[in-house]
């Protein structure tokens, strides 16, 4: 398979074609997910919850992220690899640059950072130095203590602010966006407002790409799963088929369905 790059995702957006993304944390699943044609894999700090058993992503360290990025990189068969900058790994610009460098050396092609309009300075510093950045907006789980829980964001006036923030961060150099848990109309508006690809999770059907946590879409997650999750294992019957079904459902605009979206 010709390796997927940022340009591939931009070209898909320009053509109005959808792409799929899954989280991934190890080499075996990396091979399987990339062989299913899924365009990008995210080493998400969600590993703190699904692999390590913490009740939030806050305990995840840079060492954890580097280790899992190396594992995913070894198994990859051509997908774009994005890695999360964990909680407070961007305390100042020098720290941010060093931590992003560690993820890139571990095999990431892009880093993802959670926040808001104030991310502009860090995004500019990274992108100027050759590190593509995905800005994660909307529900940002590293801020769960500030937000008071995992709640839908961008309702009412906050939706307009989100659109302005995305434009500002694209101007600062953001190459992609993750938009989490926002009303579908805000997902659509942000996607139209920026030329960088927008990857949604609980952001409606109109974003350029869709991402899910692998454990959630395989039906492996213990306990509560969010409204935006679909279990692709039930119908597919085996893991490889579930990855392929997810990819096809996103490509054909069948996922997310209305029951996975917020109004
Ligand atoms: O950590 C993660 O898995 C993520 C995705 C849910 C976007 O950030
Ligand atoms: Na994350």
From TrEMBL:
InterPro entries in the record: Pantoate_hydroxy_MeTrfase (IPR003700), Pyrv/PenolPyrv_kinase-like_dom (IPR015813), Pyrv_kinase-like_dom_sf (IPR040442)
Needed cofactors: Mg(2+)
GO molecular function: 3-methyl-2-oxobutanoate hydroxymethyltransferase activity; magnesium ion binding; methyltransferase activity
Catalytic machinery residues: 180
Entry's EC annotation: 2.1.2.11
Major location (coarse): cytoplasm
Matching Pfam families: Pantoate_transf
Localisation: Cytoplasm
Quaternary structure and interacting proteins, as annotated: Homodecamer; pentamer of dimers.
Protein name: 3-methyl-2-oxobutanoate hydroxymethyltransferase
UniProt pathway annotation: Cofactor biosynthesis; (R)-pantothenate biosynthesis; (R)-pantoate from 3-methyl-2-oxobutanoate: step 1/2
Lineage, top ranks: Bacteria, Pseudomonadati, Pseudomonadota, Gammaproteobacteria, Oceanospirillales
Transmembrane segments: none
Function per UniProt: Catalyzes the reversible reaction in which hydroxymethyl group from 5,10-methylenetetrahydrofolate is transferred onto alpha-ketoisovalerate to form ketopantoate.
Positions annotated to bind Mg(2+): 45, 84, 114
Gene Ontology biological process: methylation; pantothenate biosynthetic process
Similarity-based family: Belongs to the PanB family.
Enzyme class: transferase
Annotated signal peptide: none
Keyword annotations of the record: Cytoplasm, Magnesium, Metal-binding, Methyltransferase, Pantothenate biosynthesis, Transferase
Catalytic activities: (6R)-5,10-methylene-5,6,7,8-tetrahydrofolate + 3-methyl-2-oxobutanoate + H2O = 2-dehydropantoate + (6S)-5,6,7,8-tetrahydrofolate
